[in-house]
Amino acid sequence: MRVKFVQRFCSQPTRLSCQASTLRHREPRLYSIDTNNRSIRAASNGQQGASTLLLALFVVVVLVTATVGLLFGHKLGYQRGFHAMQTETKQAMINSSEATKELEKLRLSNKIATNQAATAKQELAISLANIKELRENQKELTVENRQLSQLNEAYAEIVVDEGGMPLKILGAKIKPLPENSFEYGFDVGMLSSDGQAKRLQPTLTLLNDNSLVEVPLDPAVYSIDGITRIRGRFTMPTGFRPLQVKLNLKAGGQEIEQLYNWSLGASVDNMPLSLLDLSEVDESPIDP
């Protein structure tokens, strides 16, 4: 635009000079513009090259970073997976070992249970055999007792026909117990001439030189028709030491009295500490 403006206002004579001057002035300007353009282009090309280089470097960095990240992640994941696999393998081995131990315990328990079952089976067989033997013995004893009872009845009938059997003491016993107590036992026999049971009233008395103590009997009255066993326990009064024992019996109009010297024989070993540890009163027969 500047060139056109100069050409319009120059005169004819000076047109050439103006053109020349314009050309002279234009050439440098064009050169300077061209130089600037080249520098701009060069700068632009340099910037574009730098941008491309930076972009390439950025891409390379991104690729390298991604590759390193992938490799690191792969390695980290592999290590974690390896450690997890090792942990699972160890846990599996521990579980397998515990399962083996439990299996051994179960086998041992099964073996013990089998042995116990076999032992229980043997004990059951022995118990059944003992029960069978006891039943057979009981049956034999029942038969023998029935026979003895029948024989006793036959003898009793004969004795009654002969006038009966007078009241008499067949056996007596007193033994020591814990807590200054004693157990007494008397076997008494009698058959009345009419063959009927009679009312028996016993009296037990402890004697020494100066006094006497009557022992309360429980029960106080018995029924006698053949043989009657009088059994019981009593506690000795504190400070009393008997020298004799007197047993008085009344039944069917008959009365007898028997004195025994107080003698307990040898000391009793392994005696219980209390009466609560004792069983019931002994009902076994007494040897005369």
Report on this model:
The chain is an alpha+beta fold and about 290 residues long. It has helices at about 1-10, 15-160, and strands spanning about 165-175, 180-190, 200-205, 210-215, 220-225, 225-235, 245-250, 255-260. It is rod-shaped. It starts with a helix and ends in a 27-residue tail after the last strand. About 5% of the residues are buried.
Features:
288 residues, alpha+beta, 3-stranded antiparallel β-sheet, 2 helices, 8 strands, disordered N terminus
Quick overview:
The chain is an alpha+beta fold and 288 residues long.
Q: Structural class of the secondary elements?
A: alpha+beta
Shape: rod-shaped
Proportion of residues in β-strands: 15-25%
Counted beta strands: 8
User: Separation of termini?
Assistant: 172 Å
How helix-rich are the residues, as a percent range? 40-55%
What is the residue-mean pLDDT, rounded to a whole number?
Answer: 79
Helix run count: 2
Largest sheet: 5 strands, antiparallel
Alpha carbon gyration radius? 67 Å
Question: Unreliable segments (pLDDT under 50, ≥5 consecutive)?
Answer: 1-33
Order of helices and strands: HHEEEEEEEE
What is the multimeric organization of the chains shown?
single chain
